[in-house]
């Protein structure tokens, strides 16, 4: 079956079609960008679907990243995925960016834990730690860089994500250094598709994973006086 995967949660706009029978990407593209996902995504999906030579009716499901990540980027990807799913009458499943970042390393070797760390700005990271079989060792959270380093420095580990170097730079001096540091800015959309192909639609709902409130907040106390 074919899976359409979409990722706009972080610093890329990506789409790909996975053939699950051969576990191969039929067509895919990824453009690094901090902004402009809304204008780029639909033409990108159309290009990828055309290159794959299939219509939406040929899809078994649609997978989309649900965060953590950019509030704006998440809304773009989730809205598009839900729209495609509604139009084609296909299920839409959510995949976290933390899981998608760790997936290729766990698939290659899950004996050494993988830490997904995404730069959340202001000295914080979005964090999750995975062990054997992809089991969660540290649940998704937002934490200070220093606390993140202390919590994952438990021996041999690998760190991936835009916050990887931040965590590595705060590493406790007495602890064993990470075996690998990969500061990739966004997950490989092929792994979004692979995780989406095995996700339970009842459990992996396409809802945003917000680990912190938005920066913009209503000013309840600052009201304009009426005349």
In short:
Helix content is 31%, strand content 28%. The protein has six helices and ten strands, in the order E-E-E-H-E-H-E-H-E-E-E-H-E-H-E-H.
Structure description:
Helix 1 (37-52) runs parallel beside helix 2 and helix 3 (97-108) packs across helix 6. The chain is globular. The strands form 2 sheets. A 5-stranded mixed beta sheet has the order 3-2-1-4-5, sandwiched between helices. It has 6 helices and 10 strands; from the N terminus they run E-E-E-H-E-H-E-H-E-E-E-H-E-H-E-H. It has helices at residues 37-52, 71-88, 97-108, 145-152, 164-169, 189-198, and strands spanning 2-7, 12-19, 24-32, 59-65, 92-95, 114-121, 124-130, 136-144, 158-160, 180-182. A hairpin with a 4-residue loop joins strand 2 (12-19) and strand 3. It has 227 residues and is an alpha/beta fold.
Which key phrases capture this entry?
alpha/beta, globular, 5-stranded mixed sheet, 227 residues
Write the layout of secondary structure elements.
Layout: E1 2-7, E2 12-19, E3 24-32, H1 37-52, E4 59-65, H2 71-88, E5 92-95, H3 97-108, E6 114-121, E7 124-130, E8 136-144, H4 145-152, E9 158-160, H5 164-169, E10 180-182, H6 189-198
Parallel strand pairs: 1-4, 4-5, 6-9, 9-10
Antiparallel strand pairs: 1-2, 2-3, 6-7, 7-8
Helix pairs in contact: 1-2, 3-6
């Amino acid at each position: 079956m074919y899976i359409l995967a979409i990722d706009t949660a972080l610093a890329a706009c990506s789409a790909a079609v996975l053939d699950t029978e051969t576990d191969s990407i039929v067509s895919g593209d990824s453009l690094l960008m901090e902004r402009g996902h809304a204008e780029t995504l639909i033409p990108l999906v159309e290009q990828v679907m055309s290159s794959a030579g299939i219509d939406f009716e040929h899809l078994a499901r649609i997978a989309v990243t649900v965060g953590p990540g950019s509030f704006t980027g998440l809304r773009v990807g989730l809205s598009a995925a839900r729209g495609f799913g509604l139009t084609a009458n296909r299920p839409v499943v959510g995949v976290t960016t933390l899981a998608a970042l760790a997936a290729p390393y766990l698939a290659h070797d899950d004996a050494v834990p993988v830490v997904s760390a995404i730069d959340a700005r202001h000295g914080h990271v979005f964090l999750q730690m995975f062990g054997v079989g992809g089991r969660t060792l540290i649940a998704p959270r937002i934490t200070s860089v220093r606390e993140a380093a202390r919590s994952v420095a438990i021996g041999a580990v690998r760190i991936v994500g835009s916050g990887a170097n931040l965590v590595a730079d705060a590493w406790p001096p007495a602890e064993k250094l990470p075996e690998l540091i990969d500061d990739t800015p966004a997950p490989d959309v092929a792994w979004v598709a692979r995780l989406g192909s095995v996700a339970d639609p009842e459990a992996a709902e396409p809802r945003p994973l917000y680990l912190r409130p938005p920066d913009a907040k209503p000013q309840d106390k600052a009201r304009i006086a009426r005349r």
